[in-house]
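Team,

Forwarding the record for the chain on the shared tracking sheet. I've put the sequence and predicted structure together so nobody has to dig through attachments.
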Amino acid sequence: MAAVKEVEELNKNELQNGDDEDDLDAVEEGENKDPAKKKKKKKKKKKAETEGGDSVTINATEKIDPEKIEDGGAEGDEKKKKKKKNKSKSGKGPSKEQTNPPTIPIAELYPDGNFPEGQIMEHGPAEGIDERTAKERFSSEEKRALDRLHQDIYQEIRHAAEAHRQTRKYMRDWIKPGMTMIQICEELESTARRLIGEDGLKAGLAFPTGCSRNHCAAHYTPNTGDTTVLEYDDVVKIDFGTHINGRIIDCAFTLSFNPRYDPLVKGVQEATEAGIKASGVDARLCDVGAAVQEVMESHEVELDGQVYQVKPIRNLNGHSIGPYRIHAGKTVPIVKGGETTRMEENEFYAIETFGSTGRGQVHDDMDCSHYMKNFDQQFVPLRLQSSKQLLNLINKNFGTLAFCKRWLERAGASRYAMALKDLCDKGVVDAYPPLCDIKGCYTAQFEHTILLRPTCKEVISRGDDY
């Protein structure tokens, strides 16, 4: 407001000194020959512009609007509207076009470090929290200030999200029946590594590519020598993650080629959206699960003349995400009941739902491929030299991020089976076998990563596809 007061005082003084409106215009155009008066006006005008931000020219007879002064005037308003209309989700658009297939790292597409925002949503009202309180977050200056404090973290996770979006956009068109699962995973992983700009533990893939088929719901990726081929009648879940400095994007989708599975896929996708809508600061985890279950169980799918209700897989859940920690401690159920723990500001969550035509419960099955170092495990003495060497390799290449046997081999490990078993037996590394429902059923999955900013809820991994 300082700028407003200076300009008002200037106009008043000039009019009292006998200058009419034309004289003021002449001063501004450089026609007034009085050097002292011109210098005085120029000095005060400069001070007003410096304190007020954008440059504004005001005539003495013009009515002064403080809001216009602070925002840069009517012309500034017009420029802001135009700028807002032309810019992408969160900042400037990419500086160059991506190739097809994608090969240009995301950091080169956005050299200014401003990566696209995800979908912005208001925090919805939660149990015990009125709607007005939830909406006020969006316009609160205090909350906006807190938002600005975490911009570096937000840009890192958006960087990872853009790499995920562009990778999956390419892969959704590229994957076809008849391909081997190893072929699919290697293409996806090499694409994501290029786009994320893989750099040790600073940037890369957050966990192995899940490509679980049919009754297998999660945690399957092919080991070396696996000759499994994707079939036309398969329902495959593509679940992969990217990260920048440990800020993880965990996002998944389901592909089916036979349209008879469309109702199953649609039911699970809509249930995921219901979970996202129910999530937010102060939302109870149990309420999110209830919202997911209600929507999912409202869908049916007919297969071979038999109608199946789409059931949520009750022992699979969403979860909170921490730096370099894919499961950070809080569990987001997909059925009613569960914990009344509330979501909090600046938490990251994977809103992840699974639907099935089977029992709606999974168990360990098939050969294990997924492993991850125990995040909370303290020092454990190791006797086998091979175990020590393998642990050093894991620490260097993956840290506490998940990995698979193919990735160990890519990092140079050989004859590691006994050492890996020893690390698992001692609790240094945890094994995550494939999770399967009953054979003959079909499962689907959708997942998004959301960020609960102080002002709003950002679905970071949102794209044009889902």
